[in-house]
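Slide 14.
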Amino acid sequence: MRRPYGGGVPNLAFGIPVYNGRPYLEAAIDSVRAQTLAPDLVIIGDNGSNDGTREDIERWSTSPDLVPILHPRNLGIVGNMNAVLDRSDTRYFAWLAADDRLDPRYAEACCAELDVSDAVLVVTESRKIDAAGRHVGDFRGLLDHRALGSSDPVERFRTVLRTPPALLVFGVFRRHVLAELGGHHDGIGGDRVTLGAAALAGPIHVVDATFFDRRDHGGTYSRRHKGIRERVRAMNGRATPAGAVKALYVDRHRAHARTIDTADLPAHTKKRAHTTLSVELPKLIGRAEAALLAQRVLGR
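Slide 15: predicted structure.
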């Protein structure tokens, strides 16, 4: 089922960024195609894979609803995520990791909530599956439904800073809001910067149903990339000079601060958000980085 909107605007696009994701990509695509609310577009961005993923995408791209983007080189995870976002022209948009899987009711549940609310982002509860697709865990209890959907932008912002970003960033966004916020931010914790900006822009709603499967396996981002420098290179597609890692944490604080400064909020609300950021961010980054922030963040 597709649900058209006025003015000929397509309803929903999924963007699937992938690099060497052949073992699970087809299952991810199949789960999108099985949605009770069919997406108008499925955009797959290949980041220079060399494991046969690219050849699979080329073979599948004869389908009219599948749009391939075959990058000649690896742009980094963030560059690929923004490339699939830029290719979409829909009312709603969602990223999907190439190793995750959706319940057939996922899109319909999220879009139905967006249709009747002022939410800028809608997610569902999720559970953990292993490499073979067996359910092995549950993430219920990690999302504060009330606080994420609060009418207070600062409460939403604080809650996002305390929430594992992977539980939110793969939800269904109002595409125009996500694009206006700059898509997925780069740098350490760029996903949380994006989500913090979204929280300042409007409520985040959680559908109280478990319609998302997050796959845990040996090739996940966190397991393949152990150190901070390695993770930053994977995210941004460029190396971080030795000795520059701590400065990246300052950059993250400044990125959050810019999203506050540019938010469409009263001055007193922005002041509260800056105070919240100063309290919450050091909890995420440890004492050494917090001391560095205390010395260098003034004059962001």
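Speaker note: The CA atoms of residues 147 and 274 lie 18 Å apart.
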